Automatic annotation (TrEMBL):
Residues that bind Mn(2+): H107, H109, E114, H155
GO CC terms in record: apoplast
Protein name: Germin-like protein
Stretches assigned to the Cupin type-1 domain: 59-209
Keyword check for Glycoprotein: yes
Stored Pfam families: Cupin_1
InterPro entries registered for this protein in UniProt: Cupin_1, Germin, Germin_Mn-BS, RmlC-like_jellyroll, RmlC_Cupin_sf
CDD domains named in the record: cupin_OxOx
Predominant location: secreted
Superkingdom of this protein's organism: Eukaryota
Organism of this sequence: Carya illinoinensis (Pecan)
Entry keywords, A to Z: Apoplast, Disulfide bond, Glycoprotein, Manganese, Metal-binding, Secreted, Signal
Length: 215
């Protein structure tokens, strides 16, 4: 192999690594300044001399979230919104509580892969690969099991048991974002035109109207 080809190979590799998650920080830290009126990719930094331990701290992830909702699960996030010191670091964390048979409905994180650990209970998890295969990869997890959902892919979890379940997950973005498929498609504001969804989902208008009324 010529030196140029090796060089291009290394360059491509380093680019793909640095774009696999949020960009690398250019300083020790950049604590988000909620007061800033500057729009940057991420959040503007407050004066590093004003950094305090609490900027890098969150309390309460031992507390169970309230799962009394129509899906029977709740996410407690620790992203840059809860922990300003995460700004520019490219990581965040969540706790997920599941009622018996509760689900975390199909969704994607546009900016993050997610590595999930089951702390309590039994979870059925899965993700679907991109077109054209749309392969469904699924597994049943028990306490201590770890599973990764690759960035951007539609994934879900279901508590496959009659006890509460708890998981903790790390995400490769300070601000992973969530797109819940049903809400985005049937609950957008304003609505996506019904006839578009009729064709897209090959369903009757009445079914689309019903689904839109649900979200
Ligand atoms: C949990 O949420 C439900 C529905 O919002 C509410 O009625 C209930 O009081 C909440 N329970 C606790 C312990 O906060």
């Amino acid at each position: 192999m010529s030196p140029q080809i090796i060089l291009y190979g290394l360059l491509a590799l380093s680019l793909s690594l640095s774009f696999a998650a949020d960009l690398s920080p250019l300083q020790d830290f950049c604590i988000a300044d909620p007061q800033s009126r500057v729009f940057v990719n991420g959040l503007a930094c407050k004066d590093p001399k004003l950094a305090a331990a609490n900027d890098f701290f969150f309390a309460g992830l031992h507390l169970a979230g309230n799962t009394s909702n129509r899906v029977g699960s709740v996410v407690t996030p620790v992203t840059v919104s809860q922990m300003p010191g995460l700004n520019t670091l490219g990581i965040s964390m969540i706790r997920i509580d599941y009622a018996p048979w509760g689900i975390n409905p199909p969704h994607t994180h546009p900016r993050a892969s997610e590595i999930l650990t089951v702390l309590e209970g039994c979870l059925e998890v899965g993700f679907v690969t991109s077109n054209p295969d749309n392969r469904h990869i699924t597994k049943v997890l028990h306490k201590g099991d770890v599973f990764v959902f690759p960035i951007g892919l539609v994934h879900y979890q279901r508590n496959a048991g009659s006890a509460n379940a708890v998981a903790i997950a790390a995400l490769s973005s300070q601000n992973p974002g969530v797109v819940t498929v049903a809400n985005a498609v049937f609950g957008s504001v304003p609505d996506i035109a019904g006839d578009i969804l009729v064709k897209a989902f090959q369903l009757d208008n009445s079914v689309i109207n019903y689904l839109q009324s649900k979200f």
